[in-house]
C-alpha cells in the first residue's frame, strides 16, 4: 500500500505543470488571438484544477499527525497556502469555463482572466515552495534508511 506522503508527492507535480502550461497557452491565445491555444488552455486549466483537488486531498492525509511539534507552523503555512490555491483554482476555472461557453470576449474579461490566472500561478508556486520547505528543510515525510553495516560485519 502506498503511504499518503508518497501519494501526495506523486500527485502534486501534475497540477503544477498543467497549470503553468495552461497559463502559457492562455498568454499565447490572447497575444496571437489563437482559438486553438484558448481551447488547450481551458482544458489544461480544468485538468490542473482537478489535480489541485486531488493534491489537496492527498496532502490532508499526508499531513495527519503533524499538527503538533516542530513542524506545526510550517505545516500550517503550507495548508493555508493550499486552501487559498484550491479556491483560486476553482474560481479561475469557473470564470474561464463560463467565458468560453458564453463566447464572451471583451477586453475587460480577458484582462480579469489573465489576472486571475497569474494570481493562481503565484498561489500554486507559493504553496509548492512551502511544501518543498517542509520536505527539504524540515524533513517532513522523509524516512532515513541507512544500510545496516553492523549485521554485515557480524556475518563475516
Report on the structure:
- With 156 residues, the protein is mainly α.
- The chain has one domain.
- The protein has helices spanning 4-32, 35-62, 72-102, 107-136, 149-155.
Could you list some keywords that capture this structure?
156 residues; 80% helix; mainly alpha; 5 helices
The parts where pLDDT drops under 50 for at least 5 residues are: none
Radius of gyration: 20 Å
- Average pLDDT, all residues: 88
Helical residues, percent: over 70%
Shape: elongated
- What percentage of the residues does DSSP assign to strands (E)? under 5%
Number of helices: 5
Give me the count of strands.
0
Provide a concise account of the structure shown.
The protein is built from 5 helices and no strands. The protein has helices at 4-32, 35-62, 72-102, 107-136, 149-155.
Fold blueprint:
Blueprint: H1 4-32, H2 35-62, H3 72-102, H4 107-136, H5 149-155
Helix pairs in contact: 1-2, 1-4, 2-3, 3-4
Amino acid at each position: 500500500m502506498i503511504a499518503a506522503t508518497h501519494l501526495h508527492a506523486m500527485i502534486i507535480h501534475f497540477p503544477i505543470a498543467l497549470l503553468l502550461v495552461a497559463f502559457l497557452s492562455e498568454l499565447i491565445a490572447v497575444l496571437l488571438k489563437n482559438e486553438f491555444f484558448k481551447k488547450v488552455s481551458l482544458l489544461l486549466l480544468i485538468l490542473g484544477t482537478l489535480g489541485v483537488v486531488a493534491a489537496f486531498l492527498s496532502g490532508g492525509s499526508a499531513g495527519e499527525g503533524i499538527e503538533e511539534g516542530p513542524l506545526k507552523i510550517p505545516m500550517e503555512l503550507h495548508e493555508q497556502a493550499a486552501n487559498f490555491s484550491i479556491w483560486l483554482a476553482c474560481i479561475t476555472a469557473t470564470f474561464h469555463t463560463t467565458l468560453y461557453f458564453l463566447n464572451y470576449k471583451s477586453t475587460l474579461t480577458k484582462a480579469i482572466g489573465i489576472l486571475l490566472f497569474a494570481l493562481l500561478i503565484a498561489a500554486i508556486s507559493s504553496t509548492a515552495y512551502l511544501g518543498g520547505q517542509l520536505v527539504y528543510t524540515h524533513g517532513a515525510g522523509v524516512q532515513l534508511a541507512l544500510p545496516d553495516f553492523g549485521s554485515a560485519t557480524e556475518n563475516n
